[in-house]
Amino acid sequence: MGDVLYEWMTAGQAGDALDDYLAEREAALLRLRTILSDHGVDPTEMLDGSVYSVSPLWAWISARAAELGVSPHTLAEDPTRGSWPSWARHGKLVDPHPPAETLALVDGFASYLGVILSTAAPEAVWQVGEHVIADHPLLNYPVLATEHHHLFPPAIPLYSVYQSAHGRAPMTGTEMLAHTRRTIEALHGRGPETAAIEEPLVTVVAEIDCFDVGLREDIPVRHPAVVEELIDALCDRDGVESVHRYGPAALVVDVHGWDELRLKLWCTLWLQRHLPR
What we know:
Layout: H1 11-23, H2 25-38, H3 43-46, H4 54-68, H5 86-90, H6 100-120, E1 125-128, E2 142-145, E3 150-151, H7 155-165, H8 173-187, H9 192-195, E4 202-207, E5 210-215, H10 218-222, H11 224-235, E6 240-247, E7 250-255, H12 260-274
Helix pairs in contact: 2-6, 4-6, 4-7, 4-8
């Protein structure tokens, strides 16, 4: 299969990718325990299986990701790429990217988070991400799912370690705990995440020399300040020349070196972190 992106996979490839992801979980968690131990942290105490434990664990991972910074290599030239978890090789990473050790930390955290969520919502099952909307951000990804909600565990942690690696504010341990608790509620069919599962937060269409970005219609109505914060955050990104708002839920983004998928994923993950719950 090579390193084909999830978004471009056939149904058969996506099924194989799910098998690969699940096969890597035990080793990823063991690797996390080893990394913690090597840095003087008792893995038994840190990984005690409680929902609360994601908070101090994520705070430690964020601090370590900040220390590690970004890889000196481009994605195409990184000699460690073959050792990355499958989700990182099939996902849409961008340069400058976190190094292999940081990706291993995210991988281990994703495994641990999967255990926490599966315990709290035993009805959840692993499956290939699917949706009635073809460009849904989790299409073909390995997801933990119920009939109410589905989650790709590395997504939010990966977004956050990019923040750490680039010297920006990552998610705090408290924020990661809140994200975990909201996800448990959503898997049970409760909370705002389940109410909007049929419509993506962001759609992106490539135009000549720019991108047309549409936000879910309720966002500017219910959270107008968040849209302005999103625009400011986009303007601060490398390569973004300008962001023009031509309607309540419509933006034109002029950015060099990005494609539709990168812009869509960045905006989606930013909104998942910043929308009030």
